Amino acid sequence: MNQVGLKRRIDDGLCLLLMAVGFLLPIGAGIGWLDMPGVLIPALIAFGCAVWLAFGRTMSLGVSLVGAASGVLVPSAAMSSGAVLGAQAAGLWLFVAGLSIIVWRALENLSELKRSGAFMNLLVPTLFGLWLLYLWEVLVIGFDVPKVLLPAPSQIGEILASRTDILWVDFQQTFLKAVLGGFVIGCGSGFVVALVIDRVPFLARGLLPLGSAVSAIPIVGIAPIMVMWFGFDWQSKAAVIVVMTFFPMMVNTLAGLNSPDEMQKDLLHSYGASDRQSFMNLRLPSALPFIFNALKINSTLALIGAIVAEFFGTPTKGMGFRISTEMARMNVDTVWATIAVAAVAGSVFYGMLALLERRLTFWHPSYR
Q1: How far is residue 265 from each of residues 143, 150, 201, measured CA to CA in Å?
Q2: Is 87 helix (H, G, I), strand (E, B) or coil?
Q3: Together in a domain, 324 and 196
Q4: Neighbours of 364 (CB within 10 A)
Q5: Could you list the pLDDT tens digit for every one of the 368 residues in the chain?
């Protein structure tokens, strides 16, 4: 048996030990699992899957995932029953530790499958994210963490379900108006100015140092000025985003246009290609990875800039307004719900840009 196989056997043995001890400790403390069938049945299934992992010659992903899913119910059912709760429930935490090893092994084997595709590329990070949310839920409820310090994901989900109308209005104000508007104007103007600088090189000596100076100005310095200039509505937030996204796009576009080496330029020149043909067939395609790099960076900068800018003046709606006002009222669950909406929106926006980049730059060595 090689070292990798030995390490996995040790991990499997540790998993069995933790789950067995965690299952027996409550019995020694006088807590009867038979009185809680909602805990006993998932525990037995999860433990059986752990045995399969340890002694089976082949790895069954279906069995391990079923075991992990059933074992997930154990801490929840035990806590809801009131029989096992808090930091004193050593058996519960040992069982969770053993269950974590099951999930880890299942995800590890999923990632090693030879058959890969879009579905498999999304399955592993999705399952891992769900597991982190579950651990968050178990730890917060198990240790009875106050809601004002850290609410459980279930409490955040309740806010998302009950206050959908308010969160949707905030999303429209911040993302659909300020973020998208400022992102398009800032990135578009940065790209156009980069093309102008490429044709008029002396402009680079004046604009690039200015861009470095403006990029160093913090958002908290720009936002109040833009609010005074453009008012309290979304236009002032879009102006902040334009300032934040303009120079990253300009600098990356210039770097991309100048990325082709002299041999490539000489080859097109030897073919008698015009400047326009050289630009469309060599320089612009070479700049696409740089341009998409700026777009992905600006997608996160735009959302951050819009939310922070709303702290300095906004109508009675918007993600930044909701975070600041609800935090003052100690409604931390609503704050986390707003953060969750912003995180999902930013991730989807970034993912769409990454997908478009893959479609347009499939020829790049990083995708081969």
Answers
A1: 65, 58, 18
A2: coil
A3: yes
A4: 15
A5: 556 556 666 666 666 666 666 555 554 444 444 445 455 556 666 666 666 655 554 445 555 555 555 555 556 555 555 544 444 466 667 667 777 777 777 777 677 665 556 666 677 788 788 888 888 887 787 777 888 888 888 888 888 888 888 999 989 999 998 999 999 999 999 999 888 888 877 777 777 777 777 777 777 778 888 888 888 888 888 999 998 898 889 889 988 888 877 776 667 677 666 677 777 777 788 888 899 999 999 999 899 988 988 888 777 788 988 998 888 888 888 899 999 999 999 999 998 998 898 888 877 666 65
Tell me whether residue 154 is in a domain. Answer: no
Residue in this structure with the two tokens 């030897």, named with its chain if needed: 270
Range of the domain at 170: 161-367
d(CA 134, CA 249): 39
For residues 23 and 55, state if they share a domain. Answer: yes
* CATH number for the domain harbouring residue 177: 1.10.3720.10
CA dihedral 66, 69, 73, 74 (to 10 degrees): 70
- Do both 188 and 293 map to the same domain? yes
Q: For the chain, what is the domain count?
A: 2
Tokens of 163: 């206050």
Provide the token pair at 200: 């008029």
Element spanning 279, H or E: none
Spatial neighbors of 32 by CB under 8 A, at least 6 apart, are: none
Q: What's the pTM?
A: 0.74
3-state per-residue secondary structure call for 1-59: CCHHHHHHHHHHHHHHHHHHHHHHHHHHCCCCHHHCHHHHHHHHHHHHHHHHHHHCCCC
CB neighbour class for 209 (10 Å; exposed up to 12, middle 13-18, buried from 19) = exposed
Is the residue at 150 inside a domain? no
Q: Which two three-digit tokens encode residue 47?
A: 């433990």
Same domain? For 130 and 216 the reply is no
* Inter-residue long-range contacts of 252-256, CB under 8 Å, 24+ positions, other chains counted: 252/290, 252/291, 252/293, 252/294, 253/190, 253/191, 253/194, 253/195, 253/287, 253/290, 253/291, 253/294, 254/194, 254/197, 254/198, 254/204, 255/287, 255/290, 256/286, 256/287, 256/288, 256/289, 256/290, 256/291
- 368 burial level (CB within 10 Å; 0-12, 13-18, 19+): exposed
